[in-house]
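Q: Structure tokens for this one, please.
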Amino acid sequence: MKKLESWLMSLTQGAMPDFKECLVYLGGYFPLLKQCDALEQAKQWHSEDNVAIHTCGVLTALYQLFAQEAHHLSGEQKQILILSVLLQDIVKPITSCSSVIQGGERVIAPTHEALGLDCLAIKLLELPIAYKAIINVMGLVGYHRKPKLLVIKKSDFSDYLSLALEVDLTMLYWLGRVNLQGRLCEDLHQQLGYLELFKRVAKEYQLWNVNDPRANLIKKVQVKHSADEQLYIDNYRVSELASGKIMRAEELGATTYTNAKNYGHLHVMCGISGSGKSTWIEQNLQSVEVISLDNIRQEINGKRACQKNLGQVLQLAKFRLKTALANKRDVVWDATNLRFDHRKMICDLGREHGALVTLVVFHLKEATLRSGNRQRSHAIPNEVITRQIEQWQWPSMTEAHRTLIVGDIHSPIKKQAMKAHHQRRSTLLALGSF
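A: Here is the predicted structure, written as tokens:
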């Protein structure tokens, strides 16, 4: 571990390792990297023979960029970009396939960006690097193809803001640049044009070189003396800007101002079994009503692990949730919520009832999860933990009004006050303001 820690630190100090050297240090943590030299790519976009050759070319382009236009980047930013280049195609070995498109056979890797982010969410925690770097690498991997798509679709401010809440747009631009310069393709000039247009639009929207886009949007729009009311209005304002419901920070419906005077908090848990969700609730949200799917399964089936009568269990849980929300009570939805669609259903109910919705994400190492599960009074089989890790979809920062990450945080990050008193290991991201 000491050698790995020293090597990772060297990435912040000007080191420029080639792909083979990176494999020596990271291959054991990310075995799929070792398959890149046998993985073909679509010839019309990548004339390089395989993903390993492409990665070598991108690393070379990145180091040239560090010496020229991007020489001003900090050591941590350089480390983040190097790791992002190495890991952006991490799941291509298991997602690549042949497909007939427009009469021709092509090699494609559908949704490899999102799946790569999900895959790395827990694996990256094994690396001895700052948590801020981990989150940024995840964002760059998960959204590295997004700039081109925004330009092609002629997306508006809300789409650019949503992306900026997930990942630094400037870093995304640099990653896009070296990705293009490190490959061989016939339409290179056109692809670079898309990227430059993305940069221009991001600047026009004042989302370029911005550490916290959320704070920039609300800092000049303080309208309430009450901290609770202002908290509600600020979070709803950014949420509606990101969803396209309003176009300017100054806009906001009268309903939001009315609801700000009396609203409930909805906390939605999100974490693999054994991550300590119920314990965290007991320690931090003592006076809050808890709706636990495990407890309702115990009520209906006699056993919390019994998966029978799923419809009845969910129907009763949703009825209790709606009742609490309608009466403006603070409430917690206690379940694993590993999938996006499961979280969306609950977060949408909170918004419909005017609640302030906080997604509480438990981000822990695999060893910690398995140890936590063994210590539970209701431990589940080890293979179930494995399956949950494989199925976990890392949440978007716009799923709720705020995202609270609970885990082993390695670096200090600005916190925002909440009614609950959170543990020191908890980090609150107001719509992704990391």
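A few notes: The radius of gyration is 23 Å. Residues 36 and 51 are 5 Å apart (CA to CA).
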